[in-house]
Amino acid sequence: MGFFSIKSDVFSFVVLVLEIVSGKRNRGFFHPDRYLNLLGHAWTLHKEDRSIELIDPTSKESCCPPEVLRSIHVGLLCVQQHPDDRPSMSSMVLMLGSEGSLPWPKQPGFFTERNLFEADTSTSKNAPSSTSTNDLTITVLEPR
After folding, report:
1. What is the pLDDT of residues 58-94, one digit of tens each?
2. Where are the alpha helices (DSSP H) in the chain?
3. 10, 29 in Cβ contact below 8 A?
4. Which of 38, 55, 88, 123 is 20 to 30 A from residue 139's alpha carbon, by CA?
5. C-alpha 14: how far from its chain's center?
6. Backbone φ, ψ for residue 108 (5° rounding)
């Protein structure tokens, strides 16, 4: 059973903010090179100092990039794995409204990544080239 708290509300709110900034939904997000959800993609871009690439191309001309980059940074602070590491909603609002330096976020919770190339090669080198083996056994129980 999951527990909801102020920190889970912050997490959910920021996922929504990242969806708005990127123009993409977290659920069903697809990255062509790696298997990433939207949080993982935002985290990867942020680590590589490329957060600007997260911004939806259709809204780049109408937005203020420094404000959007700050919202991505604050957003990543709000989706960290441990709720104690996440700021409260009021702290988040203060961070968004100020221009001071921000702490570096830790890896987000529910971050997923899998290299598709490695997954394909590891499966193909263990599997026979032209046939497959089904190791499934079905047992039917019948009463006496």
Report:
1. 988 899 999 999 999 999 998 888 888 888 888 988 9
2. 6-22, 38-47, 65-78, 89-97, 116-126
3. no
4. 123
5. 11
6. -65, 155
Q: What SS3 state is found at 131?
A: coil
Cβ-based neighbour number of residue 108 at 10 Å: 25
Domain ranges in the chain are 6-97
Instruction: Please report the DSSP string for 31-69 in residue order.
Output: -SSEEE-HHHHHHHHHHTT-GGGGS-GGGTTTS-HHHHH
* Among candidate residues 31, 26, 29, 23, the one with its CA nearest the CA of residue 11: 26
In angstroms, rounded to a whole number, what is the distance separating the alpha carbons of residues 84 and 122?
Answer: 38
**pLDDT > 60? residue 125:** no
At 108 the pLDDT is 84
- Residue closest to 22 by CA, chosen among 11, 31, 34, 9: 31
3-class SS of residue 108: strand
CATH number attached to the domain at 6-97: 1.10.510.10
Contact between 74 and 17 (Cβ < 8 Å): no
